[in-house]
Design a protein that fits this description.
With 227 residues, this protein is α+β, with helices and mostly antiparallel strands. Helix content is 24%, strand content 25%. Helix 1 (60-71) crosses helix 3 (87-97) and helix 4 crosses helix 5. It is globular, with a radius of gyration of 16 Å. Mean pLDDT is 85; it is low at 3-7 and 10-25.
Length: 227
Amino acid sequence: MRGRGSAVPAARPARGTPPCAVPPAAPAFPPARPGPPGDIAGWRPARTAAGVFRLVPVRLDRDLRLITGWMNDPAVAAFWGLAGPGAAVAAHLRAQLGGDGRSVPCLGVLSGVPMSYWEIYRADLDPLARYCPVRPHDTGLHLLIGGAADRGRGLGTVLLRAVSDLVLAHRPRCGRVVAEPDLCNVPSVAAFLGAGFRLAAEVELPGKRAALMVRDRSPRDVPRTAR
């Protein structure tokens, strides 16, 4: 559970800091490498209608400037509440990177361009489990789409479907993918519904009333990987 929830474009309460004046540079990424099923860095890219998409685990020295720029967009800051010079973003990322792996921060790279930020987390080990019923190995998603040009054209729906496909394919013990966007974030809720999630409940969480979105595993949950 993060702030006011997952979102397209974002999720958390604003702190009113203006956006960065200089757009951040896009980092370069190594190719995916083989790894164990739980290692997101080893997940194969997914072929989507928008292009080839892959998740790349965040590296603080490479990605902090880019993510900080996104967090300073007012549309993102309105839900994530991490606007500012970068210290808050760095602390937010370090808490996950220095943890036990239950939450993995990632960049979403579409056709070679980093354009979104994701958190893939174990919902049953998250504070979310204190407020609503979750099942063992449920995996949660938080999402923000970084650039304004990528919003409002259905891309969030495409990517949410692709990432939930990847989670279900690579985490065989996960029976459901869940999310908890703020009910006020209507575009986010709509994107989850379009991606095959259902509204399971409305839940009171710290700082927001959330829509508990659930995508159940089905026999067809195998991603189309890019080769």
